[in-house]
Amino acid sequence: MFSELKATHITSGSVDDPATLRALADLYPYPPTSSSPPGTGTPWFRVNFVSSIDGAVTRNGKSGDLAGPGDRAVFRVLRALADVVVVGARTALTEGYRQPQPDDVFVAARRRDGQAPAPTLALVSRSLGIPTDYSPLAHPDTVIFTCEAAPADRRRALTDAGATVVSCGEDTVDPELLIRECGERGWGRVLCEGGPSLFGSALAAGVVDELCHTTSPMLVAGGAGRIANGPALASQRSMRPVTVVADDDGFVFTRWVREPAR
Ligand SMILES: NC(=O)c1ccc[n+]([C@@H]2O[C@H](COP(=O)([O-])OP(=O)(O)OC[C@H]3O[C@@H](n4cnc5c(N)ncnc54)[C@H](OP(=O)(O)O)[C@@H]3O)[C@@H](O)[C@H]2O)c1
After folding, report:
1. Cα of 24 vs its chain's centroid, Å
2. Residue 168 DSSP one-character state
3. Which residues of the chain, if any, have pLDDT below 50?
4. DSSP class of residue 195?
5. Which of 65, 166, 243, 257 lies at a C-alpha separation of 20 to 30 Å from 27?
6. Is 15 part of a structural domain of the chain?
7. Is residue 152 part of a domain?
8. Taking the CA of residue 166 as centre, how many other CA atoms within 13 Å lie in the half-sphere pointing to its CB?
9. Is residue 35 part of a domain?
10. Domain CATH for 156
11. Per its UniProt entry, which superkingdom is the organism in (predicted)?
């Protein structure tokens, strides 16, 4: 009944080493079907979070204070594998998100796999309160996923500022429609970096294929929320652990896929 899942060890001193990063990437493969041509196949919806041992999703209001070198390496690798980084507007603004840049270690592999040099940034927002001078909006590939109920004046302001604003639902962004939109744009490898509200919506919609989770080796107590926020699910989602990695600093990286697969 019991079996030990052995952790693969990475040393924190080597997290910038290309060989270590490529070895990490080998532990986080997307399924082959996710590279289907645009409009065919269902994108793979991967989510990435870090939390403390006691379940806090932030420390001092940010996830960065829970991170370490190994976690930053996993974050980097997951981005290097993705076609699109989907993130809630609040997280993008709170965490000071910038346009994802090409990663020298992975540029050749991405070219070989027919991917753009760097993933696209896709922001999710109902209020469209994103400032028009928010720098990633200047990038031609950046997309804002919103809904019909979004304020028309904000939609106009962001569109006039050059942003691509796409409706995926009526009153709120429907994760199913968001994923369909990703598929039509040829983004089969989706990486959702949260935050907890967006993850809660995705769980409620039943679209989460995979959770990559870092346990930060600290106890922080306090009032920080959990990685998923929103109404309790009517029935639980079962997930199967497929990867366990540890680093010298005590961080534990797990990868869970849905059971059964979608
Ligand atoms: N530990 C980690 O790994 C991690 C990861 C990510 C974030 N965080 C932390 O989480 C905190 C933010 O939490 P949060 O729950 O507010 O984050 P969030 O999910 O990024 O942001 C919520 C906002 O995203 C938009 N949104 C999310 N789901 C939506 C939907 N279905 N339809 C339309 N809009 C939707 C809305 O934007 P509008 O308000 O613009 O309508 C909503 O207010 C920050 O402190 C951040 O640092 C931690």
Report:
1. 17
2. -
3. none
4. -
5. 65
6. yes
7. yes
8. 20
9. no
10. 3.40.430.10
11. Bacteria
Atom from ligand 1 closest to the CA of residue 173 = 32
The two three-digit tokens of residue 4, written as one number: 């030990």
Instruction: Please give the pLDDT value at position 39.
Output: 67
Distance from C-alpha of 187 to C-alpha of 143, rounded to nearest angstrom: 12
d(C-alpha 43, C-alpha 21), whole Å: 24
User: Is 1 a member of any domain?
Assistant: no
Pairwise CA distance, residues 13 & 100, whole Å = 24
User: How far is 192 from 103, CA to CA, in rounded Å?
Assistant: 19
Range of the structural domain that residue 25 is part of: 8-29+42-258
Q: Which residues line ligand 1 (CB under 6 A)?
A: 49-51, 57-58, 61-63, 66, 88-91, 94-95, 124-127, 129, 172-173, 193-198, 201, 229
Q: Which of 127, 128, 198 to mutate to test the pocket of ligand 1 (most atoms within 8 A of CB)?
A: 198
State how many domains the chain has: 1
pLDDT value of position 12: 65
Cis upstream peptide for 206 (omega within 30°): no
What does the longest C-alpha to C-alpha distance in the chain come to? 60
Contact predicate 83/115, CB 8 Å: yes
Q: What is the C-alpha to C-alpha distance for residues 213 and 170, in angstroms, rounded to an integer?
A: 31
Which of 48, 87, 155, 197 most suits a substitution to test ligand 1, by most atoms within 8 Å of the C-beta? 197
Question: What integer pLDDT is reported at residue 2 of this predicted model?
Answer: 77
Tell me the per-residue pLDDT of 194-212, one tens digit each, with 9 for 90 and over. 999 999 999 999 999 999 9
d(CA 201, CA 206): 9
pLDDT, tens digit (0-9, with 9 covering 90-100), for 212-232: 999 999 999 999 999 999 999
